[in-house]
Structures are given as C-alpha cells and as structure tokens.
Amino acid sequence: MKGPAAARTALLRGDLATAGEAARAMIVADPQGGEGYFLVAMVAAEAGQIGKAVPLVEQALVLEPENSEYLAQYARLLILLRRDGEAGAAVHRAMEAEPQDARTLDTIGCVLARLGDHERSVVPFQTAVALEPDNLDYRYNHAAACGFTGRVDTARAEYESILSADPGNARAHYALAILSRQTREENHVERLSRALDAASKPADHLRLRYALAKELEDVGEAGGAFDALALANAEHKQHIQYEFSQDEKVFDALEAAFGGLTPTESVFQDAGGPIFVVGMPRTGTTLVDRILSSHSDVVSAGELQAMPLAVKQAAGTRSRLVIDAETVSAALIPAPGRIRELYLARAKHHVSPGVRRFVDKLPANFLYVGHIARSFPEARIVCLLRHPMDTVWSNFRNLFATQSAYYAYSYDLMDAARYYVRFMRLMDMWDRLYPGRVLRFSYEALVADQGRQTRNLLEHCGLAWDPACLSFHENRSAVATPSAAQVRRGLNADGVGRWKAHREHMEPVRTFFEQHGIPVD
C-alpha cells in the first residue's frame, strides 16, 4: 500500500512515523497536490503540534482551496488555537463546498458547536449519522446538539441507540440522566448500577456515579445520591491533585492588584455594549441569560472566553494558565482600552453584525469585574447570588468540564465552601471600588417575585420593559449548560433549599460559613 491510502491507514492506527513518512513522500512525488501537505499536517496535529500543522493545511488549501475536508480540519485546528473568527470563516467555506463524507460533516458540526452555533450544528451531525449509523461518536454528537437545542425526544432516542450498541457507554448514560428529570416510575437507576459494576476506567466511574447520583436525587433517594457523589468526587480530587491554595493564590493576587486603587463612581455612558452575567456556577446565570436574551433588543453570546483571553493576551505572560497570580499582576499594566479592543475582537465572532446588546454569561467573569468596569464604562454587570448552602451543594453535585481548572474546587464540599467565602469577599471589593456597577441579583428573590425582580434586572441593564422576559422558557435558542432542562420549564422553587435533604453531610459547611460571617438561615 502506497500514497494517500498508506498515510491515512497509518494515521488511523496511530502510527505517526509511518504516516508522516508516507505523506512526505507524496509531497516529493506531487508537489502541486494538496494531499501530502494535508496529511503531514494531520500527523503534526495528532502529535500535539498544532502551530506546526496550521501552515501545512494552509499550503494544502492554496493548492486545493475548495476541499471541504481540508477546510473543516483547518477550522478545527484554528478553534484549538482560539482563533474563532478565522475558524468560523473556514467552517462556512467547508459547508459551502458541500462535503459528502461523514467525518468531515462531523468535524464541521463540532466546530460549529465550539463556536456556540448549536442550532446550525444539528444538520451536519445528523447527516454524518445517516452516512455512518454505526459510528457512536457521530451519534453522540448529534444527540448532544439535539439536547442543547430542545429536541429532547430525538436526543433521548439517540442516546438509547448508543446504549443498545454499547451498554457501558458512560458518556451516553450521563447525558441521558441530565437530559430531563427522572421519576420513580421512569428512571435508569438499575441500569446505571449495572453499568457501574461493569465499568473499569476511572473516567467512566466518574460519569456513571454522577449519573446515578442525579437520578437517585430525582427519585428522592438522597442518601444514595450523596454516597455516589462523595465517592466520585473524592477519587477525582485525588486524581487532579487539587489543593484550595491553587485558587487562593488567584484571589490573593486580585486583592493585592486592585485593592489599593481609588474607588470610581459609576456613571453609565449609555445603554449600549455587552451585559456581563457573572457569579458562582449553578446559581442561576443561565436563567438570567435566558431572561435577558428573551428581550427583543438582546441576544445571548453564551459563555464567552473572550474576557479571560483578552486579559491574558494584554498581560503578555507566558504561563500556560489563563489566570494565575503573575497574569493578574501584569494585567493592570496595559491600558483598559487595549483589553476592550481585544475582547471585542473575540466577541464579535459570536454575535451577528450590528448587534449592540449581547449577554456574555461566563460565570467566572466575576474574577474580571475590575477589568470589565475599567474597560467598558457602559457595560452592565449582573452577579447572581444563591443561598450559600445551595450554592455549595449544587456545585458539588454537578459534573463540570473535568479538564478545566475553573471548577477544580467543586469536588469537595469544604473546598467549595472556601471558594464561596473568597468569591463573596472579592465581590465586596468590587462593590467598594466600583459602586453601583454590579447588580447583586438573588436567585431566591427572583423565584419569589418574578415580575418585580425582572423589572429590576431590566432597569439595571438599561432595557425597556418587555413582557417576553417573563416567558423565558419559551425562548427556543440553544442552551449548552447543565441548566438546559431547567430553563425550558417555567420558573419554579424546586432548587430552593435542596441542600436540606443532605443536612447531616452539610453541617461542616454550615459551621464554616457561620465562622466566616456568611448567613445561612
């Protein structure tokens, strides 16, 4: 076997040396053909050399500019380099080239999903499944896109198809568990228990225990739910080697960098610009995003990484972490206008041209309130607050992106409590420095009086009253967070006081909060 077939076969089996040798031989034999350059690029990408792969794909595209496979993989690599605008342009060119192979269609769907365009990702995922129905990865991606866009029945059917072919598929089990609320009459508890008994990989144990805990809690088995979560989280915390001091250094650096600044009175310039919805995860940020984006003048841009990346780029630090003590200190040196420019350059790729009011609902932007206030005098900031005990429990019970350092504190109740205390202390500092800039918005108050609190929210954001904001659950736009199922229901009090079902286990958290002056009653 020679040529493209040899290179692609070796690439599929992970033999990068053989694949690279065959691809380079193709370039020598046909320097005007794009395939050799493309395959050398894919070998580099598989080796983790993304920066090296990109110019090679660009060379392949010079020679074959309408090749949909090259364009799709180019877009995927650009996403990995956080070059979202270029990735968006490349993926749309790939779509225009009308790809016919399942892998390219799936890649297009994945890029669109990473860009937050979940609605448009559904068709390429669906077509990939139609072309290769036995590929469970393609079927999973289609199911996830359907779940994000409210096609719950289709998503459920796809996950069940995956489990019919692969009964131990932990990703599908977990996705199915969180897709909707389970009942005593209809649940998957027994099936999940069997899958957990048969699982051997730590990553599978983690997902299956989270899925089991979620369903047990749904059906009222609080004790079993806690046991499953406690075991899953203890094992994962040990695996990632997390210590609270890792986050404490960031909080300390923020207080050191900003604490000595002179307070700035808030004078809103106009009702333009972005609306930042921040707070601890699982406190209602998605809910508020849905309320605001139901307004006729507002769209949701989702959870943008634009502010963290803009601050990191402006700081110019070489550490691999997006935020660390060094970056926090260095980020005060650039002019606020530079951070504004970098932020808008990234954010514009996630909203339609001409849109003035959009919501950036990355919860972790509470770490960047100082930069937001300095860089966007016109921006409105809303910080969600939820009962501290419910906040800790909800963080502990939800499986976040396991590779993200943002959520490393969530695998231990006391770490989550410590994080909450520092979060509140940081928000107090922002309030002292930028009085009036941040609306502290209570989840419980919203549940108790939706109309009044919604009016307060819109007033703070400089928005006229729009009754559609009360019907946020009718908003059909995609939701790609763990709150997807909840925000498609009407406002309810189901999440208020949920921690009380685990009162005994939560007692150390209550004591800790009382010691630090955090009211819990």
Quick description:
With 521 residues, the protein is mostly helical. It has helices at residues 3-12, 16-29, 35-46, 50-63, 68-80, 84-96, 102-114, 118-131, 136-148, 152-165, 170-179, 189-198, 202-218, 222-240, 245-258, 285-293, 306-315, 325-330, 336-347, 369-375, 388-397, 413-433, 443-448, 450-460, 503-515, and strands spanning 275-279, 299-300, 358-360, 380-385, 438-442.
Describe the structure.
It holds the Pfam family Sulfotransfer_3. Keywords: TPR repeat, Transferase. InterPro entries: P-loop_NTPase (IPR027417), TPR-like_helical_dom_sf (IPR011990), TPR_rpt (IPR019734), TPST-like (IPR026634). This is Sulfotransferase. The protein has a domain of 254 residues: Rossmann fold (3-Layer(aba) Sandwich), CATH 3.40.50. The protein contains 25 helices and five strands. The longest helix has 21 residues. The radius of gyration is 24 Å and the shape is globular. A five-stranded parallel sheet has the order 2-3-1-4-5, with helices on both faces.
What is the CATH superfamily of the domain at 245-259 and 270-508?
Answer: P-loop containing nucleotide triphosphate hydrolases
Radius of gyration, in Å, reads 24 Å
Q: What is the mean pLDDT? A: 93
Stretches where pLDDT falls below 50 for ≥5 residues?
none
Distance N to C terminus: 72 Å
Per DSSP, the total helix count is 25
**CATH architecture assignment of the domain at 245-259 and 270-508:** 3-Layer(aba) Sandwich
Silhouette: globular
Instruction: Please provide the count of β strands.
Output: 5
- Class of secondary structure makeup: mainly alpha
Question: Approximately what portion of the residues adopt beta-strand conformation?
Answer: under 5%
The main sheet comes to: 5 strands, parallel
Keywords: TPR repeat, Transferase
Pfam families: Sulfotransfer_3 (PF13469)
TPR repeats: 34-67, 102-135
Protein name: Sulfotransferase
